[in-house]
Amino acid sequence: MAVDGPFFRQPQVVTMMWMLIIVLGMCGGRAMGWTYHFSTETMNWTMAREWCWINNHTDMVVIQNQEENNYLRNVLPDKTGSPYYWIGIKKINGTWTWVGTNGTWVGNYSWAPNEPNNKLGEECVEMYVNKGNSENNGKWNDDKCSNLKYSLCYRDQCNQTSCKGQGRCLETINNFTCVYEPGFEGHGCQTAKGCDPLCLPDGFVNCSAVNFAVNSTCRLSCEKGSLLLGSPEVSCSTDRVWTGVWGDDIWSRIWVWSGQRPVCASYQPVLMVATAGWMLTMSCCICCCFNHRKRKKHAQLREPDEGVTSSNKTGDN
Asked: Residue 102 contacts by C-beta under 8 Å, 6 or more apart in sequence?
């Protein structure tokens, strides 16, 4: 597929490029996976790879499995004879190796009959796309890297934002998938799994996410006349567990729910308990004070009697 660049500047070629991108890359309105691009002029294998780079493609086509090989065979423009398409596999140190990835996948049905024949100097690979030849269509042939063929490239779609920073992006035909990180799901790992719904009878829950998503926080408060027993702020951790903090400073102890959650308690029972405690305390104080004064008064009444008795005894003597 040609693009506007040093090699090709024909408007009809640019139109062909976009048509192929639409055919190969679209997937029901979803994000595209790998897209495939080919030149309309021939070049040697080295120039074919450079053509991919010059035109902002990732590299020469790297075929991952037989399914992708068959897909390319079916969608690439048909050729009735040589030249065909250079692909990104080359013999390196005696091993057929995919450039850019160092992969060594070669399927059981990849090679055309009697290929590779391993003739001297045949260290690059072309793919036959000849729908009139069912025996060789989609098969590979080793050939001299200096021969002229069409360049076949791919452009990947994974980038740093493909999985919203929450997963690992894997390219697939016409699409990509994300390997989820803990606490996330969805095509692009964009949906955070949430904690269990949070409710507070006789109170209010104000959350940063309506679905109680991972990493969201909630502020808890009670209606007038009620007292909050528990942490006033909780957050949903990546393991989908509500956590809270006791106290108002950063040194407070982290609290993980394992039993009763925060509740709103009415002030009336608390006031009744406090009032009862106060009355009991006051009653004890009054009783203690009354007994103390009574003992003190009794002691004062006994002191004069003791003095008179002592004086009488002295006079008699």
From this structure: none
The residue ranking higher by pLDDT, 290 or 312, is: 290
- Whether the CB-CB separation of 24 and 174 falls below 8 Å is answered with yes
pLDDT of 105 strictly over 50: yes
Q: Domains in the chain, start-ordered, CATH in brackets?
A: 11-155 (3.10.100.10), 193-302 (2.10.70.10)
Q: Would you state the pLDDT for residue 14?
A: 39
Contacts of 128-136 with CB under 8 Å at 24 or more apart are 128/79, 128/84, 129/72, 129/73, 129/76, 129/77, 129/78, 129/79, 129/84, 129/85, 130/78, 130/79, 130/80, 130/81, 130/84, 131/78, 132/78, 132/80, 136/112
Asked if residues 145 and 44 have their Cβ atoms less than 8 Å apart, the reply is yes
User: What tens digit of pLDDT does each residue of 144-157 get?
Assistant: 999 999 999 998 87
CA dist 310 and 65 (Å) reads: 123
pLDDT of residue 213: 77
Q: Reduced to 3 DSSP states, what percent helix, strand and coil does the chain have, rounded to the nearest 5? A: 25, 30, 45
228's tokens: 């909050």
**Res. 110 pLDDT band, cuts 50 70 90:** very high
Whole-number Å distance between alpha carbons of 287 and 280: 11
Answer whether 189's CB lies under 8 Å from 164's CB. Answer: yes
Give the list of residues 6+ apart from residue 118 with CB closer than 8 angstroms, or none: 142
Q: Which residues contact 186 (CB under 8 A, 6 or more apart)?
A: 178
Higher local confidence (pLDDT), 202 or 10: 202
